Amino acid sequence: MKQSRRSFLTLAGIVPIAGIAGGVGYAMSRSDIPKPDDSPGTSAASPEATPAATPVGNTAVTITFGDIVVSGELWDNPTAQDLISLLPLDLTFSDYNAVEKTARLPRALTMDGIPAGDDPEPGEIGYYAPGNVLVLYYGDIGYWNGIVRLGRMLENVDQIVAQSADFAARIDLAV
User: Fold this and answer.
1) Domain of 106: which CATH number?
2) 30-82 pLDDT, tens digit each
3) Which residues span the domain enclosing 88?
4) Mapped to the 3 state alphabet, what secondary structure does the chain carry?
5) I want to staple 131 with a disulfide (CB 3.0 to 4.6 A). Which of 6, 26, 56, 124 is the partner?
6) Is residue 156 part of a domain?
């Protein structure tokens, strides 16, 4: 009994790592970015506790593709403010691992004053710094270093999910 339990625990620890390492993704794989651990000095703060995730002064935005408009809001943090300075943006989004749509940005966004990583919720808008991509999350991905939560989509998230091929979208300030 002890041997089979130990084997199960070992296998349970290996399988998720192997699953992540086998993924294909951005210019660099997320497997290159370490996940937090429980060692001293490492903090995996809850999203509610991170300054980057605290909506203070929200900015209304739209994500338009075809005749579909997705309303959203960007939160008041340095990275979101930097993204706002680039609007309007015309981007091409691709699916990544059936949990998010990603689009490469024309330049890197600031990471000044931003936590090392975060755990975005489905329906949120984020930035993945190592890949320099804007991300529309529709599935749970967990905590990753390099993620910044920028805001959220307020409606029509299902229309984003329904895009099975790459799609062009314009992100702009809401009128």
Assistant:
1) 2.40.100.20
2) 443 333 333 333 333 334 434 444 445 799 999 999 999 999 999 999 999 99
3) 52-173
4) CHHHHHHHHHHHHHHHHHHHHCCCCCCCCHHHCCCCCCCCCCCCCCHHHCHHHCCCCCEEEEEEECCEEEEEEECCCHHHHHHHHHCCEEEEEEEECCCEEEEECCCCCCCCCCCCEECCCCCEEEEEHHHCEEEEECCCCCCEECEEEEEEECCCHHHHHCCCCCEEEEEEECC
5) 26
6) yes
